[in-house]
Amino acid sequence: MLSELISEVSRYKKVNLGEREIEFLSRIGQGDNSSYKIFSRLKKMGLPMDYKNVNKRVRRLHELNLITKAKGESIHNAKFYTLTSEGLFYLLAGGWTVDKSWLIRYKDNMILKYLLEPYFEENTIDVYGIHYEISRYLQECCQLILSCVDAIKSISKHPQRKKGEEIIREQLQIDLEWQAKTLAFKLISKKTDFWYIFNIVRPMYASAGPKPVEAVTWKSKQWEALSAADFEDNTSRYASLARDKKFMKFSKNLGKEYEQALTHLIESGQKWITEHTTT
Question: Under a CB-based contact definition with an 8 Å cutoff, are residues 12 and 88 in contact?
Fold first, then answer.
């Protein structure tokens, strides 16, 4: 499956998109899957944009093969679109905050199937905190895959390219597994939760007084009212992870692997000290 994934990503072309085009690509991934739906969404948000300009950008995304036509019916005769693997990869690898709806809507896509399915059940990735860490994990994995594809292309004319490709793939598999292990360790041991804190801080700033001095005073009082427990309450996250059979199995094996590695480290260190200690 890794070879198929590399082959899929090898068709990915690095393109420069404007902010609007990136926004529209993301919205299509979230379900606003036509020019008309995007146009209507912008209008409701108070950010109107001429329909022809919306449609022009959506057409460009289609021409770049970041989206493809999908089945659908509309009274406005709209054309419906869905993300291609290239479009999904562009969003994941580009560092854009991963929307939870992408992870659910495109769960059967080869990229997400390889990187998420072995480690998480569907309900788990929808939890705040977990979702944020998964976003970073996916970005790092996609960058590794992209580097692998570039490395394979760089040796395409070498006489020993097949052996080289095998070595590169093996190393990529190891690196991707390490990314998953790192993610699991973070989710288990990391006490502070970015999204939890963000959802505490954001209302503070939104509700602060209109005058700068009043705002600072108000926020200071609110900060004082927050206890350390507010920043370390991972009950919801831990409960979700504990119910996830895939994650628990992976984490338990990770614990055994760590114990074995630690034991080996201690024994190797003691052996080296014994061999290099002079009497």
Answer: no
66 is in which domain, residue-wise?
Answer: 2-189
Report how far residue 80's alpha carbon sits from residue 62's, in angstroms, rounded to the nearest whole number: 11
Half-sphere exposure of 154 (CA within 13 A, CB side): 8
Contacts of 52 (CB under 8 A, 6+ apart): none
Shared domain check, 49 and 89: yes
pLDDT, one tens digit per residue, over 232-259 is 556 777 888 899 999 999 998 888 888 8
Contact (CB, 8 A) for 80 and 100: no
pTM: 0.79
Q: Tell me what pLDDT residue 194 has.
A: 60
Q: Are residues 135 and 201 in the same domain?
A: no
Q: Which amino acid is at 45?
A: M
Between 13 and 273, the more confident residue is: 273
